[in-house]
């Protein structure tokens, strides 16, 4: 195995994918923000209001997915066919899950991971006036399908400290 | 305490900071990527080459810090006076630290956290051909100084599972 | 009928279009800026100079069309195959028309409407030193072709106050 | 009176404002979307759900305000100190109002008008599956304060067809 | 003398300028495109039309100046107070000159050089259907004033092959 | 021959390419920065360090290639399949070469030329603390293949002053 993002001269480059076929590709990523129980409660209360923390964060995550190739230097710019972000509010934090799809020549792992990261950062921003000690945890790829390199499904052994 | 990013109608807004004085502000954030020992080894080997994983990631992180207000919906767009990203390569992963400074009316916590996040995502992108099971962990604010709301220094009690 | 941009949890998402076929699609939108007769006259005089108001505005509109998916949260990022903006200078204002084309899985209504809007905003910016009371009016979709949802042609009944 | 955005050679340029003092500046703009009563009703029903049309649109408007200088060619890039967008849902449409503030050398009229425009375009995008005949109307500057050119308050005579 | 854009660890960083005073700063850069006499003639003829090559290029250059910190990794993002681009059409090519100003903590050399570069690239794009052999030449800093590092005026000895 | 970027009204537009077939396309561009021998030496010494001038510049060039349609007004936004930038350090300067590929309806000349330009500008930025008199020279298209307009290979006669 070797890093694919370096050319013969040893320099980073955007690897050529022009010979790959277009295929349907999906990637699912997750992440979590640990926060105080009081912060969780405030988010819950806000969900019955017009502009809640999670709405803002989820929109930021979707927009972030579309900016992935602008943020990650060696990432290909590709049209995404769909992005969906969902939440699971727990007692001590918030779980974030992003699913990204495309029909193209490269996978969308980075788009899913970026969507989760920007969503989490926005939750932090929206709640930081009450809780600066929040921690973003376990941003990881759960699943990747499509493309000739084979599917990836995160196994139990991959889970580290949850 | 309450969330400051919502207006009287209950909708999110970019809170007005025009009455605040310009002051020097600093924020330091950290994060970590857990990865296999083999991946760590490959990164180390690459560091003696021309375009190593960490160079690409650190540049992405600095550019990401400048894009923070474009990514986080309620974040103010402010001129940054400095951004510095450093690494600590461990046996089972990589620690990332970002320090951001400004002279302005709002803090730069989000810029420091965004710098760490984009750096970590880029490390993932550069290494994913050999290790898709990497996990981004513990993105957190370490320190914040400047502004009238007082300094924040992450205490021992704030550290959760490291 | 229902809004398509919300998922099962009731949250906004970028609707999946990966199963749609690529097809040629066109959208035409229009808009108008009401302005004083003197402002119209000044624009006309400028048209014989090197850098007239309409040139700047039309370029901004074309560039704006390319930024649509960056501006409209649930809009898909797609490669446009053509953008054309034209003007009709009347006694009391300026009519703007934008035509946008693509070969893809989603329509380009938003791109055409965004092109008109950014063009109009730039006209306002270029003329505001002489006329701050200008009003942007009647930004509307005129036509949409391609895709399986059927064509849309704006009918007489749709025209409201022109 | 003359257009200020052209240099001696008759070409557009970003006018030099370096000699102006920093001062507090405010701009308020408005706009309206005409839509069918059924569409209004659907928006209202959505407001009790998690991710309503207006939340998405208002966030897009705030982010759009921050992109103004990237969209309008001769606009200065300036740090905004606050952006607030509000809605008034009527029987036959939606009124949008945006207030933008800065402390700087140029006014924020374009930022307020851009915020209204992007908000309106996003409402159109979110509702277009049920109503393609919506029309964006009366985007106009209501008020502008700060700076040496004097305040602007939209008079009755300025109102055209509302 | 040493490169200032590297930190103690030998990695690139955005150098901290928070202790510098705000001061008025100007930078002037130039560049040239060599092209066939026929291409020059076609540009001249277009200048009497509505949307000439130079108008499009000059607008692109001004917008490019505002994107400098988004393009050049270690560049500070700063509000520009003015940008002006001028042309000198010669028998065998086009000379471009850009002047950029700010009031701030860092110079605007990169903004002026970027403005010239993007202007030149756009001229190439607009003319490439008739002349692909055009060459962009002599992009250089002519003058830099303001800041404590002293002014820079390009001397005769600096001119290389013009 | 005529300029293709103008519509019937004489205004610039993004030319419609929807009827063209998707095909593999390549473009190669080059450029050069003249600099003092001492600056060359400093770059060489930096190449053995972690974050050298060329790494930063090459990453900026790759990211710049992806931004081409955002910078050049009439350029189509297209997904790139690969970008590779290489260097040749000479006694009195640095040669830059960029190769860009796509599978699409338009060529990638502008992407290759933009990659070279942004790379060169970043080299200037990284070295300007020691050498402000550097000159960017000879940015030119070397080769273009794919598409129905035929291939372009830069001939000897096209080389002007190297």
Automatic annotation (TrEMBL), chains A, B, C, D, E, F:
Binding site for substrate: 74-76, 110-111
Keywords: Lyase, Molybdenum cofactor biosynthesis
Cleavable signal peptide: none
UniProt xrefs under PANTHER family: CYCLIC PYRANOPTERIN MONOPHOSPHATE SYNTHASE (PTHR22960:SF29), MOLYBDOPTERIN COFACTOR SYNTHESIS PROTEIN A (PTHR22960)
Coiled-coil regions listed: none
Active-site residues (renumbered): 125
The protein's Enzyme Commission number: 4.6.1.17
GO biological process, one term: Mo-molybdopterin cofactor biosynthetic process
Record Gene3D superfamilies: Molybdopterin cofactor biosynthesis C (MoaC) domain
Catalytic activity: (8S)-3',8-cyclo-7,8-dihydroguanosine 5'-triphosphate = cyclic pyranopterin phosphate + diphosphate
Gene (UniProt): moaC
Enzyme class name: lyase
Ranges for domain Molybdopterin cofactor biosynthesis C (MoaC): 14-147
Protein name: Cyclic pyranopterin monophosphate synthase
GO molecular function list: cyclic pyranopterin monophosphate synthase activity
Family listed: Belongs to the MoaC family.
Top-level taxonomic group: Bacteria
Annotated function: Catalyzes the conversion of (8S)-3',8-cyclo-7,8-dihydroguanosine 5'-triphosphate to cyclic pyranopterin monophosphate (cPMP).
Subunit text: Homohexamer; trimer of dimers.
Pathway(s) it belongs to: Cofactor biosynthesis; molybdopterin biosynthesis
């Amino acid at each position: 195995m070797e890093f694919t993002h370096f050319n013969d001269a040893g320099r980073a480059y955007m690897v050529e994918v022009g010979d790959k076929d277009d295929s349907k590709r999906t990637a699912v990523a997750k992440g979590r923000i640990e926060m105080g129980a009081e912060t969780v409660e405030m988010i819950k209360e806000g969900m019955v209001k017009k502009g809640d923390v999670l709405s803002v964060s989820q929109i930021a995550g979707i927009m972030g997915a579309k900016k992935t190739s602008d943020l990650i230097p060696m990432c290909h710019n590709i049209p995404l066919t769909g992005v969906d972000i969902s939440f699971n509010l727990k007692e001590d934090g918030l779980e974030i899950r992003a699913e990204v799809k495309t029909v193209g020549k490269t996978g969308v792992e980075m788009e899913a991971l970026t969507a989760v990261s920007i969503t989490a950062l926005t939750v932090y921003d929206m709640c930081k006036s009450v809780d600066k000690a929040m921690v973003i945890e376990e941003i990881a790829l759960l699943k990747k399908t499509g493309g000739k390199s084979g599917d990836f499904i995160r196994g139990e052994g991959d889970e580290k400290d949850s």
